[in-house]
Amino acid sequence: MPAPFPGDRLKEARRRRGLTQEALAERANLSVGVIKKLERGGTGRLETYHVLARALKVRTSALLEPAGPHETRRSDDDNILEKPCSVPVSAYVTRHNVQSRTC
């Protein structure tokens, strides 16, 4: 069963790679205090998790999501618009619901 919290998943990933908190901090160019805080359950910025994921050679989602990375990823076959809509999204958001829109 995967660890329930990001700090637990961070600690697991660090230990799987045989790294100390100090070694991970050096690799990620962060302070040891940040690593300790996150592993104890403290909160961190998303960018901090990105940096840690790169240092651990894992996806950021492996640190943040209880089930790890999603099994499905976006592919070239996905139906995605090639260019953004010219109408601002705020034009479609009402006080109580979001209306569907097409471009």
TrEMBL record:
Signal peptide: none
Pfam families assigned: HTH_3
Gene3D superfamilies xref list: lambda repressor-like DNA-binding domains
Gene Ontology MF annotations: DNA binding
HTH cro/C1-type domain boundaries: 10-63
SMART domains: HTH_XRE
UniProt xrefs under PROSITE patterns: HTH_CROC1 (PS50943)
UniProt-recorded name of the protein: Helix-turn-helix transcriptional regulator
